[in-house]
Amino acid sequence: MAALVDETHDPALTSWVESADDPATDFPVQNLPFGRFRRSGEQSLALGVAIGDQVLDLRRAGLIDTDDMGVLMRGDVAARRELRRTISQGLRRDSGRRDALRACLVPQRNVEMVLPCRIGDYTDFYTSIHHATNVGKQFRPDNPLLPNYKWIPIGYHGRASSIVVSGRPFRRPVGQIKGPDDAAPTLAPTRRLDFELELGVFIAEGNELGEAVPIERAEDHVFGLALFNDWTARDVQTWEYQPLGPFLSKSFASSVSPWIVTLEALAPFRAPLRRPQDDPQPLPYLDSSANRQAGALDITLEAALQTSAMRAAGVPGERLMRSNFRDSYWTVAQMVAHHTVNGCNLQSGDLFGSGTQSGAEPGQGGSLLELTLGGKRPLRLANGDRRTFLEDGDTVVLRGYCEREGFRRIGFGECVGTVLPARVV
Questions:
Q1: Is 7-114 in CATH node 2.30.30.230?
Q2: Model confidence at 2, in pLDDT bands (50, 70, 90)?
Q3: What is the CATH number of domain 122-420?
Q4: How far apart are CA 416 and CA 328, in angstroms?
Q5: DSSP category for residue 408
Q6: Is 1 a residue whose pLDDT tops 60?
Q7: Which phi and psi (to 5°) does residue 106 adopt?
Q8: Residue pLDDT, tens place only, 237-286
Q9: 391 C-beta neighbours (distance < 10 Å), count
Q10: What are the structural domain ranges in the chain?
Q11: Which of 130, 131, 338, 339 is catalytic?
């Protein structure tokens, strides 16, 4: 089911790309995430891997013969793992290909990152039981967690066309809003704009229509993970979500980080799937010994906020929270198995959102809805700014990284988005 730890994860490996050996980098030679980029002044796109503060152009290096990420995604698991091993060998300090590959590097500061692949379809899940409980308490204090949650990986089909790459700003959305005491709704810019700290799961090889993917092979259909921010207009959501769920409250923009960290890179950071003993056991199609033993992923996640006042003063963003994907109630393999059990055909480049990743503690909410108790308890930032929900000019930065004794720290880079004023209604 899962990629195994091999020589590419050896913490003693170093690279002839000096910046890759910086302990603070997200992109050491043990990581090698994939992305698409455009050189300054050029229109054509290329595929590369991040190594330190550089990008290795894979086609120019002779390591692939395509600039289509979909071709890599559709390749079989063995081919993907062999490509990763070959790239690793070429970038190691003792590589005989150093001189040839050096000419294929380009500084990350000199490239424009674009979406990692063409995203055909997008499904958002709800895998954090802590987030589901926190939100449920605000709307159903006596019954915060609905009875199906512990049986089904809950999800809904979202809008792929409005997913943008990290760094691209977006406008505050307009929608119908109706307060509890309003006689009728009005069309207005949202006043309760929120972030949602998630992970994105990119599908590799798809499955045929009508054929379910068994959980034992589910991860063979996953290319890797990225950071994902599913921006949400909470007041629009409150009015529209019954009876069919989110619509305009989420389809205006979602941000994804540009680098896909492969499941192979994440192999050292596996963890057992932990659930309370008295919780119901998953139905057989959602259960396997491998998923129980190592289906979870130990990924630390953080969200930071930089207000426009901070930016004007040269102050970096302030961290709001920290959680871990290890605490997710449902795993990546379970998401794939459930999504396809009815015969739904996934395709290369499809994206899953994990749902907001919150921790068990009060300060670990993955959204402002949780951190401010629905706006009832504003956050006071170090510079004196206060926030219940996002204001124009605010920038949210998501980060993710993996650390474990005996292995090299790897990271996901950043997922950044800035709120622009709404268009005039």
A1: yes
A2: low
A3: 3.90.850.10
A4: 23
A5: -
A6: no
A7: -140, 135
A8: 999 998 988 999 999 999 999 999 999 999 999 999 999 999 999 999 99
A9: 16
A10: 7-114, 122-420
A11: 131
Residue 276, burial from CB neighbour count under 10 angstroms (0-12, 13-18, 19+): exposed
| DSSP run (H or E) holding 130 | helix 129-139
Per-residue pLDDT of 356-402, as tens digits, reads: 999 999 899 999 999 999 999 999 999 999 999 999 999 999 999 99
Q: Are 38 and 45 in contact (CB under 8 A)?
A: yes
Higher pLDDT, 391 or 143: 391
What phi, psi does 337 have (nearest 5°)?
A: -60, -45
Those residues with Cβ within 8 angstroms of residue 155's Cβ, 6 or more apart along the chain or in another chain: 123, 124, 125, 126, 335, 338, 339, 352, 355
Burial (CB < 10 A; 0-12, 13-18, 19+), residue 422, is: middle
Write phi, then psi, for 253 (nearest 5 degrees): -175, 140
What residue type is assigned to position 395 of the chain? T
Catalytic: 131?
Answer: yes
Would you say how long the chain is, in residues? 425
* Radius of gyration, CA atoms only, the chain: 21
